[in-house]
Amino acid sequence: MDLVFKNVLVSRADSGDAAAIISVYYETSLATYPNAKYGITRQDIVERFEDDLSPNGILKMSMKLANPPKGELVLVAKIGDEVVACCWCIQAAVNKIAAFYVSPERQRQGIGTKLWTESLSYMDMGKQFFVEIAVYNIPARSFYERLGFVKTERHLPEFRFKSGRIFPRIEMKRGPIPA
Question: Across the chain, where does the E strand assignment appear?
């Protein structure tokens, strides 16, 4: 783990990272989200990413990375030139982790922890932090719990796949981080 951790460079994403970021989202989603209990299939995930993986979807992401909305930041973790993880942070009334993905083959190597630690330098430490995760994504829940997050009771709006299946999510939060 130490060798991998030392070789990981975390930086702001740029427009040239768009395809790699989408690929990390997609590969991690394929490995994580299909779930028999909730009826979520691999096809649901493939269909969810059809537009994102298209040349137009990559162009849209590239443009968003080149000119991010106020308060938004995307960080990438790279080993060499390979994007192995990404974190989409939003600062508003609270800090929101809009997306946090580590490539399946790079999980449990300290990369997520390094990415989280680096993201804190861009966040307002005096505000609460929020993230939404799949109800059944136990590894993600454990990761956030180790970082001090707890499940809220907030009812999240439904997200439906094209198939009509509901993607069950929970919200987690943690308090401000003392200076």
Answer: 8-12, 72-79, 82-91, 95-102, 129-134, 150-151, 169-174
- Compute the chain's Rg from CA coordinates: 16
* Domains held by the chain: number: 1
DSSP string covering 51-63: HHHSHHHHHHHHH
Per-residue pLDDT of the chain (179 residues; tens, 9 = 90+): 444 557 899 999 999 999 999 999 999 999 999 999 999 999 999 999 999 999 999 999 999 999 999 999 999 999 999 999 999 999 999 999 999 999 999 998 899 999 999 999 889 889 999 999 999 999 999 999 999 999 999 888 889 999 999 999 999 999 887 76
pTM to 2 decimals? Answer: 0.91
Domain that holds residue 123: 2-127
CATH number at residue 76: 3.40.630.30
Q: How many residues does the chain have?
A: 179
Residue 34 domain-assigned? yes
CA–CA separation, 100 and 43 (whole Å): 22
Residue 144 lies in a domain: no
- Taking Cα atoms as reference points, which of 111, 152, 112, 157 lies closest to residue 131? 152
